[in-house]
Write a structure and sequence with these properties.
There is one protein chain. The chain is α+β, with helices and mostly antiparallel strands. The protein has one domain: Alpha-D-Glucose-1,6-Bisphosphate, Chain A, domain 4 (2-Layer Sandwich), CATH 3.30.530. Helices cover about 25% and strands about 45% of the residues. The chain has a seven-stranded antiparallel beta sheet with strand order 1-7-6-5-4-3-2. Strand 4 and strand 5 form a beta hairpin. It is globular and about 45 Å long.
Length: about 140
Amino acid sequence: MVKVYVSAVLDATIDQAWGVLRDFNGLPDYHPFFATSTIEGGKPADQVGCVRNFKDHDGGVIREELLSLSDREYLCCYRILEAGLPVTDYVAQMRLFPVTESNQTFGEWWAEFGVAPADEEETVARVHDTFRLAFESVSRRFGG
């Protein structure tokens, strides 16, 4: 199993950052990699068990299932059901913490997954960039 971990301090309050990142269907609204997203079956985007079906700008399809979402803990966990990435058993978690001294937010996002050695370097880089760009985009939205 490979683990990818990204952390960042976001130039946003925790409520601002969480307001964007908790939307399981909102990736295309702030992330440069993704073009469209829908929640299958018309379920709410914050319902555990819902599946988001989204596309990147190259037409690649990704389906992910929401495993947990906590507004109290500022925590989201999900798994990949289908993707163009050569991964197995992919589970990711994103969590936010307030930085009380500066009224900013500390975010961490990690994923664990299986990947063939030949695909590991490229896959790890893509997952890392996905998490990093999400945090950067949210930070820029609120002034960073």
